[in-house]
Amino acid sequence: MMKTCQDMMKSSELSPGSENVSQNNTRDEENQFEVAHNRSLLITDPVQPCRRTRAVVKEWLLKLRCCLGAACGMEWFAYAALGIFTAILSFLMDLSVTKLLRAHQWLYAKLEGHTSLQFFCWTLYPACLCAVASSFCHNICPSSTGSGIPEVRTMLAGFELPPYLSLTNMFIKFLGLTCSLAAGSTVFLGKVGPFVHISTMVGAYLGKLCTLIQANKEDAAAGQMLVVAAAVGVSSCFGAPVSGVLFSVEVISSHFALKHYCPCFFSAACGALTFRLLSVWSGDMETLRALFKTNFSTDFPFCPLEILLFAVLGVFCGAVSCCYLFCHRWILRFTKTNQIFIKILTTEKALYSSMVAFLLATLTFPKSVGQYMASQLTMRQLLTSLLDNSQWSAPPQNTSLQPLLEWSSPGSPVYLPLAVFLLMKMWMLVLACTLPLPAGYFMPAFIYGAALGRLLGEGVAYVTPGQKWDMRLNPGGYALVGAAAFSGAVTHTLSPALLAVELTGQFSHAVPVLLATLLANGVARARQRPSFYDAISISKALPHLPSLAKACPSLLFTPVGERLRPQSVQLQKAAALQEIQRAVSSSTEAQIPVVDSNESGNLLGFALRSDLLNFLHQKKIESHVKHLDEVCTLFPLPVLLSPAITVQEAFEILTLVGAKTLFVADRGRLVGLITWSELKRIIEELAKEI
Amino acid sequence: MMKTCQDMMKSSELSPGSENVSQNNTRDEENQFEVAHNRSLLITDPVQPCRRTRAVVKEWLLKLRCCLGAACGMEWFAYAALGIFTAILSFLMDLSVTKLLRAHQWLYAKLEGHTSLQFFCWTLYPACLCAVASSFCHNICPSSTGSGIPEVRTMLAGFELPPYLSLTNMFIKFLGLTCSLAAGSTVFLGKVGPFVHISTMVGAYLGKLCTLIQANKEDAAAGQMLVVAAAVGVSSCFGAPVSGVLFSVEVISSHFALKHYCPCFFSAACGALTFRLLSVWSGDMETLRALFKTNFSTDFPFCPLEILLFAVLGVFCGAVSCCYLFCHRWILRFTKTNQIFIKILTTEKALYSSMVAFLLATLTFPKSVGQYMASQLTMRQLLTSLLDNSQWSAPPQNTSLQPLLEWSSPGSPVYLPLAVFLLMKMWMLVLACTLPLPAGYFMPAFIYGAALGRLLGEGVAYVTPGQKWDMRLNPGGYALVGAAAFSGAVTHTLSPALLAVELTGQFSHAVPVLLATLLANGVARARQRPSFYDAISISKALPHLPSLAKACPSLLFTPVGERLRPQSVQLQKAAALQEIQRAVSSSTEAQIPVVDSNESGNLLGFALRSDLLNFLHQKKIESHVKHLDEVCTLFPLPVLLSPAITVQEAFEILTLVGAKTLFVADRGRLVGLITWSELKRIIEELAKEI
After folding, report:
1. What are the sequence ranges of the domains in chain A?
2. Where do the segments described as Disordered lie (chains A, B) (predicted)?
């Protein structure tokens, strides 16, 4: 019964071709017809129990689909659902992380007076959480570790990586990420990357659902849903729709199809709206507001001369990011080559995670080095305190804020905690990147950049005490600029500039933020250096062309003919029945190339495997030779490639044409086929050669 | 001498291939070598006067290029120059328009008491300006009329429209636009569209300059420069970098190449920064600030329930935009079919413009209907007044603003002027679209939308006087949302949402603005309705595929083979000398297809025309038959298309592959060539069939 119903649902929208020309007009009529038809079918079916009730329910469901479908395509409801569902997930995660962090803080405060107990509370809590996250991932779904963005962009480029879209992965990633985030600022990890991955998994499921309802839009809908889901990730994470979409534009490889533009913005807006409304309804906020709302002066945000300082800050952030990325690449190579590391990371992931977390927590213990690096603040408090618009070095006037006290260690200038924070967090962050648990690395970079900016801002405020504009100088602005510039440089993207604006709702600094992010990107991208995500892609040998191009540009100019597997399955025009049988059984491709004769090998076109199967099914008994073009349609080849074409070009044409198979022929003679799986094999081979 | 120097400059950077692999490393050495080489060459040249001085100057220039080139590619300096130059142009235009508007206002005020003289001052001033602009365009450069955006996007899609990039066009467009804008809110025209066109022309010239310096990057640099220039247009116009880039992403057809992303943002940031710095240096502003800065409350920007009202406003704006676009399409058809109109618009453009301007000015005369539609305000004042955050319907507390008085006609409620404004401006705007002068239609739509939003906002404020949140209700927010939604719906873009945020610096309303713009776009785009620019493209029969797709979708699925001109020029593999000569003289294409024999017509590859010319030049005397592959290299075809491929697919593959010629073959037999000019011919033919 289930199958019949699905078939009926599918058949309802089988409009010819992929064009949506005047499809809307005919769709209504089809639906109307189908409702009536379906009811009569169900009522007259003699086998089913409760026929009438089921018929009524089904009728109502189909009517609902008609109503929804009349307003706009079903996919738009799926986009809205994607945004809303991801935002709810994001909100739930924030809620649980806040509770877990508060529990830790409460326990730590209760143990006041017992330093050793406090030490164990401070260190064992994050160590246990990391161990739990790691063992979850290790035992249930090993592909849920890490950021997920490198895998997402590989999938968005068109390659299939099934384990990265499974439902198990989603649950494990969600639980593991909650644990990682609850470990707090000690382990110093973020939420963005895994959340983009989670939203992609949600998108993949909604895409499947959409495909089930709309049978004629299979591939397009599923592919589009993934692109939209990547945009929704960031949007739902911070309630920042525009930067979410721009981030997805930037991570999608080489070409952004404009047909995704409106769906992305629509879904991102739904996600951001839901996320902010949830904050309002939960009582966190009075109305819809930015997540890290700041109170910079809008009348005189900065002096025009400060533009130069912002530019310097951008270049400086770019330089520091190069240093950070170098260390990151080094440690990635080290964990891949050092035998001890390989052994630990393959068998004792939970132990390794807890040991690293314990080490990091020991160093940040507030009664040791931690007091010089504001370690008692959570990630969110850290960012809020760094973006504060009052000058810390100035004599305190009305600074009753708790976070600010954390940064001012007694007797020492304000620069000391900032400098210690920057020096320590650099290597701690690099070490944390080796942890085998779901974790984002964007937010830590954002906060690190904010600290860099703050240091410069406070420095400028200190150096220029007598200037006229000093009184209005706002170190928070420098922190904002630094945050965007550093995180942009680390990820080689510009969208952090807009994210900084959306997170703080502070539009006055938009131009300096953009300028600094551009300069930082310029420094970080010089000499084709790989970005943070590129380094992971290369280390994992993912079939992602742009990162491969950075690691070894010449590889992409390899002619595709050199790497192609020789085509074994082809049919002669005058093929015998046995030949057809052999071809059908030995090939799994949907299109089977047809040549003039096996000797000449001149490519004529292709036959559909399904047509051949049909023919074989019908004519099992007859066995005399027949000409192939009497048996089935011979399709002409829309595009024919030469073996001299490069891997990159072949990839781009495959992406663009939307075909599943491209034929490669050398002066008319068939050389091979390019399919997604073949291309994936070629690129993975290339990646391993680096 | 000039030529020699250019050649030398060109030869300096002729690195092999188009890859920039390790190009940076070799470039410095090459430059160093060239400086020394150039000096010695100049000094030893016996013919030239002032050899030593010229050598020194040239040496310094080349050294400067080395220094600049060491920092980054020369194209980045061109992007910066493009942004800065366009911003200066924009600033100069604003300055002259302000002066001209002030002169008009001063004269009008001086004539107070003489109503008839005031009437003539009010009407003749814009009429004369429009006549001047029209006759300028008509007599010197007819292609400078209108918005320019439809032509720009056609060029960005890859087609060449040389008259639209000429230097004359740029000057005429600049002068004409200044006149149109100086006609003020009477004629109600904007600046965006023509400015995008002007910046594209600037970009084209800078692109040529770049090509001159960097000989090896010809096409890519010029194409990229156009894309960047389109982004810079909006950015320099309003000092709004992000929305400028997004606008250019949205207008570029179907695919946005990510390699343009950073250059676009860089150039747009330079433009926006320059534009704002110029405002600061000219004394208009104290520091860098948004153009239409508002003072909405950021603590409680709006009540969460108001989201629903914003959504309703979005849908309403979408519906009104459909009505406006319908009228616009009707008048475009009318001017193309009505014989009187055709006659006037071909011969008496200046007369027509002045008559229309006179009619519009008569109706907006402040002592007649004009008093009910705030006609004394300039475009800028109109927008500022509509975005004001106080409630007009509330009893005046401290509304000392002059603009607000204009909207409150004595004795009548505030809704009357708004309603009259909306009703009158609708048809006046449609009429103004027929004026044959350089003018933008975006800003009028933006202001119209703001008025729509304001009307709803004031209505809501009036209807809900007793509510708790009424006291904080901000009709300015509705105006902002309405402006973005209406202009977005008219142009079928989402970037106005961001432009609204960037123009006002008001981030608190970002989410409602985006939501309303999305909904308005949804309504406006339903049933494949063409946008404002699409209608112009269709009316002008421009070879722009997406607009063609909206007018008649089935046309794009025409197989390219049906429209292709049969290929007359081809060479046999065993071609005689005469045959080669005939082929070279009868074809202008760079690539000449080579076939097996003229009878079989099997395509083997192509020969370069330049190779053949070289051969003919050398072997003029010999006349015996030779095999072609001994004479020149026979290149394999990277991509071969079938005649069954659609026009749209052929266009996309041509765009992507970056080749200038694609070969179409039916089962190995040559059918024809697809070049940009051939494709342009085909699409223009299709466009005329609508």
Report:
1. 76-282, 304-332+370-393+402-553, 555-689
2. 1-29
In the stretch 70-89 of chain A, residues with CB closer than 8 A to chain B read: 72
Q: Which long-range contacts (CB under 8 A, 24 or more apart) does B333-336 make?
A: B333/B539, B335/B434, B336/B539
Q: Which residues 429-488 of A are in CB contact (within 8 Å) with B? A: none
pLDDT, tens digit, 9 for 90 and up, residues B122-158: 999 999 999 999 998 888 888 888 888 999 988 888 8
pLDDT at site B3 = 38
d(CA B147, CA B442): 9
The answer to whether B76-282 and B304-332+370-393+402-553 have equal CATH topology is yes
Does the beta carbon of B288 lie under 8 angstroms from any beta carbon of chain A?
yes
Task: Answer whether B282 touches A (CB < 8 Å).
Answer: no
Phi (first) and psi of residue B146, to 5 degrees: 80, -165
Distance CA B655, CA A320 (A): 39
Selected residue of A236, A251, A288, A502 to mutate for chain B interface (largest B Cβ count, 10 A): A288
> For residues B220 and B262, which has the higher predicted lDDT (pLDDT)?
B262
Q: How far apart are CA B404 and CA B398, in angstroms?
A: 11
Contacts of A618 (CB under 8 A, 6+ apart): none
Cβ of A72 and B241 within 8 Å? no
Cα(B687)–Cα(B690) distance, integer angstroms: 6
Quick check: helix, strand or coil at residue A592? strand
CATH no. of B76-282: 1.10.3080.10
Q: Which CATH architecture has domain B555-689?
A: Roll (3.10)
Chain A residues with CB-CB distance to B638 below 8 A: 641-642, 644-645, 649
Kindly report the nearest CA distance between residue B81 and chain A, in angstroms: 15
Using CA atoms, how far residue B333 sits from A455, B330, B535, B538, in Å, is 63, 5, 10, 10
B605 chain-A contacts, CB cut-off 8 A = 667
The answer to whether A650 contacts chain B (CB < 8 Å) is no
ipTM above 0.90?
no
Separation between Cα atoms, residue B354 and residue B661, nearest integer Å: 48
- Give the whole-angstrom CA distance, residue B196 versus residue B182: 19
The pLDDT assigned to A16 comes to: 34
SS3 (DSSP) at B56: helix
Q: Which two tokens stand for residue A489?
A: 């440089």
Distances (CA, A) of B414 to A8, B310, B320, B366: 57, 21, 21, 17
- Chain B: nearest CA to A310, how far in angstroms? 13
CATH 3.40.50.11540 fits B304-332+370-393+402-553, yes or no: no
Q: A130 with A187: CB under 8 angstroms?
A: yes
Q: Are A641 and A656 in contact (CB under 8 A)?
A: no
CA-nearest residue of chain A to B296? A298
Residue of A nearest to B657 (CA): A649
Instruction: Tell whether the model's pLDDT for residue B185 goes beyond 70.
Output: yes
Distance from the A632 Cα atom to the nearest Cα atom in chain B, whole angstroms: 17
Q: Give the separation between CA B159 and CA A167, rounded to whole angstroms.
A: 47
Q: Is B290 on the interface with A (CB under 8 A)?
A: yes
Q: Can you tell me the mean pLDDT for A371-389? A: 85
Candidates B235, B237, B505, B75; CA nearest to A515 is B235
Interface residue B255 vs chain A (CB under 8 A): yes
Among B239, B261, B514, the residue with its CB nearest the CB of A241 is B514
